Amino acid sequence: MTVETKSDLLHHIANDFLTPTDTLADVREYGAGNINDTYLVTTAAGRRFILQRINRRVFKRPEWIMSNIRVYGEHVAARLAAEADTPGRRWETPQIVPARDGRDYALDAEGGFWRALTFIEGARTYAKIRDVHHAREVGYALGRFHNLISDLDAGRLYDTLAGYHITPRYLAHHDAVAARGDFARSPEVVYGLRFVEARRDVIPVLEDAKQQGKLRLRLAHGDPKVDNVMIDDVTGQAVGLIDLDTIKPGLVHYDIGDCLRSGCNPLGEETEDIDAVYFDMDLCRAILQGYLPLVRGFYTTDDYAYLYAAVRLLALEQGLRFFTDYLEGNVYYKVKHAYHNLARSLVQFKLVESIEAQEADIRAIK
């Protein structure tokens, strides 16, 4: 597709989500997501919204995503309306912008699935946590999210990504790819293979706890990384969680584990200085200080007991996914070069080692 035809397509699709009185002013790429194609649309009147093409290779039923977002949005709106205002704080949820035909989405000539969501003004996301105040706000955002949906029946939402965060499935896929052996066995690859093998017994820890009734199936965000937390430009407070495609039945431990995994790595998952990667305990404490007060109303003793297992596992899981994708030829994640996913996996494996070395300190946080 040429740049010109791509531009034509974007303008055509963006116009599908304009009101009769709107005029399109600009469409440009936005964010750095690894899955969907995301654009920021601006109208002549200055109204802005997010336009996305859903990756149908990843999300087989994108209409389920839209149903989940609508159910979630309506539930949260009702909860917020019923609660007393929190002084000095706002909380916003991206709302669906309907297409001109009234649907939640639009299709292009090739069957591409497009949707639009409201843009949260006066706030931004950050790739990495800046300081302990930011960390506390990231924890608050996830805690606020979990609190708001704690009474939403998980059965009302579709499973938009079957197997997501079911770590034993990722291991099974890894084993199948590794068994083929059609990849170069560089020292880094040999290290990765041995690293995964040495931690094979860690993989089922959360799923086993779920099967044993220790952890309960609830609703989870699915991808509460630091760069999905909106921070107010003026107050520095968290005002919302974005990237709602993976809201679905799951374990809240997937969320808090992933939040800590991404938030407590000061160098970020794209760093090339792998030897310098570490899990920052000060950031971990701050995130949990923001998170735990908001979930105490529904957290159980077992929920607290599995927090360390969650952060260790989610770092291992993400490393396993990057590593397997590299071995398979980079078929899932967007990459900038052939070794990108391998480098990403080594960052996560280094993070796992740092988490393991600080197990006692992590378990001591209340």
Structure description:
The relative contact order is 0.13. Helix content is 45%, strand content 13%. Strand 1 (24-29) and strand 2 form a beta hairpin. It contains twelve helices and eleven strands.
Task: Draw up the topology in text.
Elements: H1 3-16, E1 24-29, E2 37-43, E3 48-54, H2 62-82, E4 96-97, E5 106-107, E6 113-118, E7 123-124, H3 132-148, H4 167-180, H5 187-198, H6 205-211, E8 218-220, E9 229-232, E10 238-241, E11 248-250, H7 252-263, H8 281-295, H9 301-305, H10 307-328, H11 340-357, H12 359-364
Antiparallel strand pairs: 1-2, 2-3, 3-6, 4-6, 5-6, 7-9, 8-11, 9-10
Helix pairs in contact: 3-7, 3-8, 4-10, 5-11, 7-10, 10-11
Structural class: alpha+beta
Estimated share of beta-strand residues: 5-15%
CATH architecture of the largest domain: Alpha-Beta Complex
Radius of gyration: 21 Å
Average pLDDT, rounded to a whole number, is 94
CATH class of the largest domain: Alpha Beta
Characterize the largest beta sheet: strand count, sense, and whether it forms a barrel. Answer: 6 strands, antiparallel
How many domains in all? 2
CATH fold group of the largest domain: Aminoglycoside 3'-phosphotransferase, Chain: A, domain 2
What percent of residues adopt helix (DSSP H or I)?
40-55%
Count the E strands. Answer: 11
The termini sit apart by: 53 Å
Q: What is the molecular shape?
A: globular
Q: Helix-strand pattern, N to C?
A: HEEEHEEEEHHHHEEEEHHHHHH
Low-confidence stretches: none
Number of helix segments? 12
Could you state the CATH homologous superfamily of the largest domain?
Aminoglycoside phosphotransferase (APH), C-terminal lobe
